[in-house]
Amino acid sequence: MSRRHIPGRRPVLAVLAAGALIGTLGAAGPVTGDPATAPAATATATAVVLDDTYYQDALGKSGEELKSALNTIISDQTKLSYSQVWDALKDTDEDPEDSSNVVLLYTGRSQSKDSNGGGSGQWNREHVWAKSHGDFGTSTGPGTDIHHLRPTDVQVNSTRGNKDFDEGGSELSDAPGNFTDGDSFEPRDEVKGDVARMILYMAVRYEGTDSFPDLEPNDQVDNGSQPYMGRLSVLKQWSQEDPPDSFEQRRNDVIFEQYQHNRNPFIDHPEWVDEIW
Asked: Which segment of the chain is annotated as a signal peptide (predicted)?
């Protein structure tokens, strides 16, 4: 049986969210207290449900055994066309404070969903794992996997190009907090962990067994067209320093519920980064 069709799996996440809301509001309206405890409780309850269903075959494993188990789990997905990615990103990266906008990855700018394209000041589709690293292009598969596709400013996307990720360089005048040099790009602090977990998702999902290249992180930069992305030691550090936030968690849920029906396991279990690498 396909994992995607385990009876009651996806609906149970919605039930948990509804339950948390009911518990917060109560029978007679809002209750007093710290509202921050409700999202934390919901996240914990959701993690328990996922471990009992989605991740059950990965629990208790480590190293290559864990990586192999996760590959089997997350490879069960619905694949999108590159044109479908436009609309998907309008949902996955929606600004929580303005539903007509998306939040751009590197700049953090909130911008109209309809301002997408290739012109100056617009946003386009950034392959966080650069599509030239493995030469998979934009064909259905890794080239359209929205777990690593994000809306970004056209100019900043061009500046990043196909560079590996590392620290250092000169700050971008049009995207303060981001730095670049001749062979690497450093994103702003608020999304360093997001970038790391997207890269590591790709390395687990695409193992060279389904006609796609075997993508792997390594500890170097300037990887060119090889199916590698660095720098692994820096990505691991970023994942620890910038743990998953509510925006990243919601994005994972939307991809799972509405589009690809698979998850980024390093958002649900950040500790698995060190278990594998």
From this structure: 1-27
